[in-house]
Amino acid sequence: MSWWMGAGLGFLRGGPLGAVIGGTIEHFLGKKLQKKLQESLPGIVHQGEFISCLIIIMTRVAMESGALTPKQVAVIHNFFMKNLGYGSTDLKSVDRLVGEVQSKKPDIYRFVKEYKKSCQNNYNLLLLALCYQIILVENIPDEDTQSLLKTVGLELGLSYDEHNEIRVKYSLEPFKTPYHILGLPSDASNDDIKKAYRKLVSEYHPDRVAQEDEDTFQKAHLKFLEVQSAYQELEKIRKI
Q: What is the pTM of this model?
């Protein structure tokens, strides 16, 4: 079994993958694979963690609309074959981790955070694009899957413009603009933007909805992230 896959399985079962990987990646990850990854995707800090999190996140996204299909598995395989030169033996390790994810159904957002650390935010757009690929290979995403993709984009720290570039590429309707999210016209004053932001952040703050049921809490969490992202974009645009 590949070392990175063993680490991934350990992380799924509650182990500290980042601590396990640390600075020992060169010893455990084959030099040929390490070199290929450096050439294809330079700037990754923890290679084993990056690979494991990528597989886990793509699998969890695909599972949002039902059971993982052969076409979706092929999307994962193609990424590793094209970028890392994986052969049939290497792909067996990928498939084993995919199977473990299907069984455990781990919290996707935990692994999004670990993914960001592993690549120092250099490949956040890549991950989101792969998430869309694995969904769209079967069909247009339903409402729940759209919501998941939106939240993944926000958790990755991507702006709506960056996210919408991917959506337009795949012929999907862009998400709402920051003004729409704050409930304001595009000619709103800076003071109006600040007031709307403070009102919505207070309304959807996690502390305020902590006692609600899981569905209500998750919807409020998504709205809270949307509002924060929208305001941050307007801060940059308007120099607020």
A: 0.75
